[in-house]
Design brief:
Rossmann fold, 13 strands, eight-stranded mixed sheet, alpha/beta, three-stranded antiparallel sheet, 2 domains, 323 residues
Amino acid sequence: MEQTSGTELTAQARLAEDVRRDLGAVPKRLRPHYLYDALGSKLFEAICELPDYRITRAECRLLSDHAYEILAGFELPSAVVELGCGSGEKLALVVEPWVVSGRPLAIELIDVSDTALQMARRTLSRFPGLTVSLHEATYEDGLAEVARSREPGCGLLVAFLGSNIGNLDPDAAVAFLGDIRGVLEPGDRLLLGADLVKPERDLILAYDDPLGVTAAFNKNLLVRLNLDLGADFDLEQFAHRAVWNPAASRIEMHLESLSAQTVRVADADLRVQFAVGESIWTESSYKYRMDDLVQMGATAGFGVRDQWVEPEAQFAATVFEAR
């Protein structure tokens, strides 16, 4: 059974509004979730297969090894919510042992990308009888909708995987975890995947691979603006750059202008001037230490129930419990 919900503001109008504001900021930036249109989502799936991008494989090993512990002790029935569902393969690893054993689970998938939602639905359809609801919405709006329709006594697990928490600056990350806590009841859980600090060379290779797949993923954002908003970005005049900022503990992805140029974004009623070397900051990926994660959770109103680390890739999965 599938259900779908949407938001009132059209996706194109929201994109135009965000682009108008963010390309007028200093420094220029674009919101990272716009990287994941239909082509961007497929390119990201390819990135996950690259030998130097270990996040996905490491997280999948942790989820597979600890699937039983993640949901152990929950009352029946239970619901699992995934924020940013991707292909659905990670969530499948978490729920498979429970579904196979006949445990009733309701799945709520929340993503701004219909492509990702449909992909995840197809992945989870291999489990007969599983109830899947799709919410094409922001995380905040989707969570609010799930909270409103929650059945009394239903245990809730919210999964936020792929180190997507790293796309938020530290204050915003804590605030976001607090928003999640706000829709949960004591005893509910949050499953958080987070990448850990590691040598700079490893980080740069993960975000600027020799095959150029990540560069294509990043530059596809300009293709999207050309197609969706009538922009005239010349892709040959922009270069992908990945930079490690040790003081902030983050990888930054940029699109650097290779010439002095003016770009028109027709449907956002915008003209943007670029100097040589000026960039659009498209994504931040913060890297953590274990104590950072525990403190973030505590500040947001969570205690740590379980925590595991994949040693080769230095990736952590943490099960928080709402206090």
